[in-house]
# Entry
Amino acid sequence: MSAEAQPEIIVRPVRDVDAEALGRVHAQCWHDTYDHLISEAALERVSPKRLAELWVNWAAQGDDFRMHAALVDGEIVGFAGSGPARDRDAPAMRELYFIYLLHSYHGTGLGQRLFDAAVDEGEPLYLWVAEDNPRAHRFYERNGFTLDGASHTEPFLGETLTEVRFVR
# Structure
């Protein structure tokens, strides 16, 4: 009786050579996450190539930025990034910019590993998340975040997306 091989799971800093794979995963995650909030036509305009170009810049931003990728058997399946606060009225010095994970890896603990790589334990932090994303809301609440009452409507893929702010 042979035991099934466990997949190799790694969370590590993003490298510039990851840009193409990150662009593809980023585009797929946007489809998975926003398909109920943004039209299919807008999502079809998402360019993995354009997102890959952004990742080349993000991978080289320096020590204030923490960009990490999750890999399963050598394939990127998700990513997270944090860095200096971008808002004028920021409630903390650092911001969690994003965590995205391919849908098939939700509930595996990989999202938590990405979060833990992108931020320090107990670090004061804030983030913006789609108002209608209950799964993400529950994840952030488990990690000590609460809504602070701030919200805004952002242009997103030529449409609009309402986001709410969580603070820890």
The beta strands are 9-13, 66-72, 75-84, 94-101, 126-130, 146-156, 159-167. The mean pLDDT is 92. The helical segments are 19-34, 40-44, 48-59, 110-118, 134-142. The first helix runs from residue 19 to 34.
